[in-house]
UniProtKB/TrEMBL annotation:
Source species of the chain: Trichoplax adhaerens (Trichoplax reptans)
InterPro entries: FLVCR1-2_SLC49-like, MFS, MFS_dom, MFS_trans_sf
Keyword Transit peptide carried by entry: no
Superkingdom to which the source organism belongs: Eukaryota
Single GO molecular function: transmembrane transporter activity
Pfam families, per database record: MFS_1 (PF07690)
Stated name of the protein: Major facilitator superfamily (MFS) profile domain-containing protein
Predominant cellular place of this UniProt entry's protein: membrane
Length: 462
């Protein structure tokens, strides 16, 4: 067995009868880069919504729809992407997604070129966004599959954390860079061009180095098991009350994050904050989230206290979201605003990898792409609800407040002027409170995968 492993990797090592391969880190890098590039496409317009609306001559809701497209596409093809990854393998899913992402990024560039009639520019950029949206489900469902098939039990949570948080990392970069690049409408095409670089690199690396679906020898006993067939797995996950609770609660969390990332500029500009400040808040939310996710991933890898960690994090995230909703009702409070958004990011993003691991634990031996993919689909459902409702429940900014607003006219509802998003944030907060109560009170599950591996180790002494 060792000779067989050495043919595959010079740095593999033996742990009982299981083998891990160094190239798993390269594959992790490919998925991370692909997720970063795709996420930058998704959220590239959010922190420059006013300039985007002016460039494409559209309303604020049409700008939001560029992000909403990702959520709608996930609902349409999310199950198909889970089936494809589970049936045809991780490699096919990753290669398909990186190529489609790159094609979408190139089409987006066309919308910024002068020879395209201004009436059609928005339609062209929407086509590019839609292709990126089609690729996203494959990329978001790949991390748990990669972690389960290629990483040993004591590295799965951290591998899942790194690959899952690459999507928020892309959002961080877009929120930070978009306001810096797009200082005027004629700079928006430059942003579209720059955001094609990472998808291009991901295509090259995936084509050259993503060569296998599974390792020659599994890294753990659970990786060696044959999972449930796709449609049987679908039935099993919804027979688990614990998974249904997780499906709702994680969906709310992912949905709120998606909505907040989309409308943050519209939330803050009415209080006089600049696009640069909005971009900074979005970037800090995710930057602190990356730290929180890394810490929670390391912690649960060592302690295996997935349930306790998830319950603490969702309660803390809800509290800080409520605080953010209250503080953003007032002008001239940049420091408290940043503090609240940083804490929300740390707690909310810390919950994401823990929740995805819990989905696998409470549905094992259902395939990882199925259990995690359904959570992401739930997130898109609640994201759509939050984004659409944020426009529906927002109110016209009082006349006395309009002089203090920093929103460009094009971001506003053209009949009522700038919109106050206070009720939108409170609506999201109420969702978060309900989800927290459900998870704390109703979520209980044995760790089925960990227990199966423990039993295997006791029986075979490894």
């Amino acid at each position: 067995m060792e000779g067989d492993a050495q043919l595959q990797s010079t740095s593999s090592y033996r742990d009982g009868e299981f083998v891990v391969y160094t190239r798993r880190w390269f594959m992790l890098l490919v998925i991370c880069l692909a997720n970063v590039g795709n996420a930058m496409m998704w959220i590239s317009f959010a922190s420059v919504a006013d300039v985007t609306a002016e460039f494409y001559n559209v309303t604020s809701f049409q700008v939001d729809f560029l992000s909403l497209t990702y959520m709608i596409a996930f609902l349409v093809i999310g199950l198909f992407s889970s089936w494809l990854i589970d049936t045809w393998g991780l490699r096919i899913g990753v290669l398909f997604s990186v190529y489609v992402t790159l094609i979408g990024a190139v089409i987006r560039i066309l919308s910024g070129l002068s020879f395209v009639n201004k009436r059609y520019k928005y339609s062209v950029v929407m086509i590019g966004q839609t292709l990126g949206a089609i690729a996203q489900p494959f990329l978001l469902e790949s991390p748990t599959k990669l972690a389960a098939l290629w990483f040993p039990g004591n590295q799965r949570a951290i591998a899942n954390t790194l690959s899952t948080m690459s999507n928020p990392c892309g959002i961080l970069l877009a929120n930070a860079l978009s306001p810096v690049i797009v200082t005027s409408t004629n700079k928006l095409p430059l942003m579209l061009e720059l955001y094609t670089i990472i998808p291009a690199i991901a295509v090259i690396l995936a084509t050259l180095g993503f060569c296998e679906n599974t390792p020659p020898r599994p890294p753990s006993s659970s990786a060696a098991e044959v999972g449930e067939p796709f449609f049987d797995g679908l039935k099993l996950v919804f027979q688990s009350r614990s998974y249904i609770v997780l499906f709702i609660c994680m969906g709310v969390g992912i949905g709120i994050f998606s909505a907040l990332s989309t409308v943050i500029e519209q939330v803050l500009c009415v209080r006089g904050y600049s696009n640069e400040f909005s971009g900074l808040c979005g970037a800090l939310m995710i930057g602190c989230g990356l730290i929180g996710a890394l810490l929670s991933g390391v912690y649960v890898d060592r302690t295996k206290k997935f349930i306790e960690t998830a319950k603490v994090l969702i309660c803390c995230a809800t509290f800080t979201l409520i605080a953010f909703s209250m503080i953003t009702r007032f002008r001239g409070l940049p420091a408290p605003t940043i503090l609240c958004i940083c804490l929300f990011g740390a707690f909310a993003f810390g919950l994401l990898p823990v929740g995805l691991e819990l989905a696998v634990e409470c549905t094992y031996p259902v395939a990882e792409a199925t259990s995690s993919g359904l959570l992401w689909m739930s997130g898109q459902i609640f994201g759509i609800i939050c984004i659409v409702s944020s426009q529906a429940v927002s109110t016209p900014l009082p006349v006395a407040e309009i002089p203090y607003s920093n929103c460009a006219n094009s971001t506003a509802n053209r009949d009522s002027g700038p919109l106050d998003m206070t009720w939108s944030l409170l609506f999201m907060s109420s969702f978060a409170v309900i989800a927290s109560c459900l998870l704390v009170v109703l979520f209980h599950t044995p760790y089925k995968r960990l227990n199966a591996e423990k039993k295997y180790g006791e029986e075979y002494g490894c």
